[in-house]
Design goal:
Elements: H1 10-58, H2 60-65, H3 68-99
Helix pairs in contact: 1-3
Organism: Dovyalis caffra
InterPro entries: Enod93 (IPR005050)
Transmembrane segments: 34-56, 68-87
Length: 108
C-alpha cells in the first residue's frame, strides 16, 4: 500500500485503518507460523537424522544403498515437510482464532 494515499471521507479513513489492522494481523499470524515451522523442522531433523545415520551404518541393505546424498535427502525431506505442515496449521489456527474477535479487541 502506498504511503501517499489520503483518505477523503471518514468512511475511507475507517476502511484504510481496518485494512492496516488486517495487514498487521496477517503479518503476526504468518510470523507465528514461521517460528512454529522452524521449531518443528529442527525437531524433525534431529528425530530423522539419528535413525537414518544409525541404520546406514548398521543395516547391510542401508549400508549398500544409502549413500550420503540419499541420507541427506531423507533428512531434508522430512524437515521440509514438517516445516510446511506445522507452519500451515499454525497460520490457519491463528487466523481462525482471530476471526472471532471483534475489531475493537484486536491489537495491531
Amino acid at each position: 500500500m502506498s504511503k501517499n494515499v489520503v483518505a477523503q471521507s471518514p468512511l475511507q479513513r475507517n476502511s484504510l485503518a481496518s485494512l492496516d489492522q488486517k495487514l498487521a494481523m496477517a503479518k503476526r499470524c504468518s510470523h507465528e507460523g514461521v517460528v512454529a515451522g522452524a521449531k518443528a523442522a529442527v525437531l524433525a531433523t534431529v528425530a530423522t537424522a539419528i535413525p537414518t545415520m544409525a541404520s546406514a551404518r548398521m543395516l547391510p541393505w542401508a549400508r549398500a544403498n544409502l549413500n550420503h546424498t540419499a541420507q541427506a535427502l531423507i533428512i531434508s525431506t522430512v524437515a521440509g515437510a514438517a516445516y510446511f505442515i506445522v507452519a500451515d496449521k499454525t497460520i490457519l489456527a491463528t487466523a481462525r482464532k482471530n476471526s472471532f474477535k471483534t475489531p475493537s479487541n484486536m491489537k495491531a
